[in-house]
Amino acid sequence: LTYGSTLAELTSLEQLLSTIVTDSMAHASEITISDEVVEKLWQVYSHHKDIPNPQRRGAIIILGMLAKAKPDIMAQKIKTILKIGLGKHGKADLALARYSCIALQRIAGEKKKQKGVIAQDTVRLPMDHPIFIKLRQLIDLPTKSKN
């Protein structure tokens, strides 16, 4: 679903998957995305060999989309994201690193911003958190890639 998709197509897919997850959590809908599917996506993303880059990217894109409605999907696998997406695989495939960073953003969940109101329930990580260390290592990597 993600191979060669435009930004508009990815945005539409994200909204569709988010709606499915939200509806299934709220109304016990017939259409659901099972935990087995989520686990299989994590296996594809974190497999150390024999997984083509587009397939690994597709897995984290879909996981990030699902996490828009259910942030726990990401929160439970931070170490995996740091090891794969911001580690060796991410350094070799900066598009994978970019989508991994987008997925990490989902940990905070979807918060509606209100003008003039400061969000009180946001979590601020310490600057020595492994996420920031890995991000810095990735940003310091010399490259000519547009990603």
From TrEMBL:
GO terms for biological process: meiotic chromosome condensation; mitotic chromosome condensation. InterPro entries: ARM-type_fold, CND1/NCAPD3. It comes from the Eukaryota. This is Condensin complex subunit. GO terms for cellular component: condensed chromosome, centromeric region; condensin complex. GO terms for molecular function: histone binding.
